[in-house]
Amino acid sequence: MFSWQTQPLTWMHFLGMLIGAVIVLFLVLFIVMYTIYFERKVIGWMQNRIGPNRVGPFGLLQSAADVFKLLLKEDIIPANADRPMFLIAPIIAFVPSFMVLAVIPYTATHIFTAGLNVGVLYYIALSSISIVGIVLGGWASNNKYSLVGGLRSAAQMISYEIPLGLSILGVIMLAGSLNLNTIVTHQATDRFGWYIIPQIIGFVVFVIAAIAELNRTPFDLPEAESELVAGYFTEYTGFRFAFYMLAEYVYVFAISALGTTLFLGGWEGPFLPSWLWFAIKTSAFIFFLFWVRATMPRIRIDQLMGFAWKVLIPVALFNILLTGALSLIL
Fold it and tell me: pTM here?
């Protein structure tokens, strides 16, 4: 940790933190833009299609063109919408997606990392706020498809937050800390190595709950194009629509980075720079999410909710019990 992070706040320290936040913001925007491109190419390859290949060499500028197009599109507000709520909802969904990145340890030097002692709790608490923006957008649109999508999203994200949090408890018990930096360093010295080995049950629960939290296939009930047009953002256009899409893909990166930190040893690894190890592991996690989207069909809403409460939560509780027992024995 840098020395200025433990010293009293001054204007120079504040300026340094502000510059660091801006750098992370632009880096993540760049990563998200090419994550979308990567997803379209990977799914195209899996479905025996070409994917984006026209705008720029190998279609590399397609995502940039899409972003530029959305920023230029007209911002339409439905006549019967609740205007103030309609305008603020995408911001409420978007802002927390970047705030959670403050506690992710990207490198061994902890550059751009807050290093909070309650980093895990901070991530879960901040990511929960996005649910409000999604529900508010669906309700304020005064559209039946948007409302159903918003309600589905609220039920789904709140339900799957429980097994997501429970799946992390096993890692916290092994590391003895809520600090993400400490969790990574413990994996480097732990006799089991990466926590994916002793916490394989927790890891499986974490991955399933994370996909549901992201509203991605096979848990994309809140959007469900064949049923709800576009779900909670049916009435949104232009840059407000871009806010929702951007928030979704920032969370794809954030949850993959969190999974890498908790279960895959974070930046730890031989020979290569720490940031490169982190990038490789996070990219593999993201690729898996895309693989699932190209493979799995959408499940029914009753199956979705029943699976969370009747399967994932009991399995996550069993993992906590098993972790406690093994800690006492070993």
Answer: 0.88
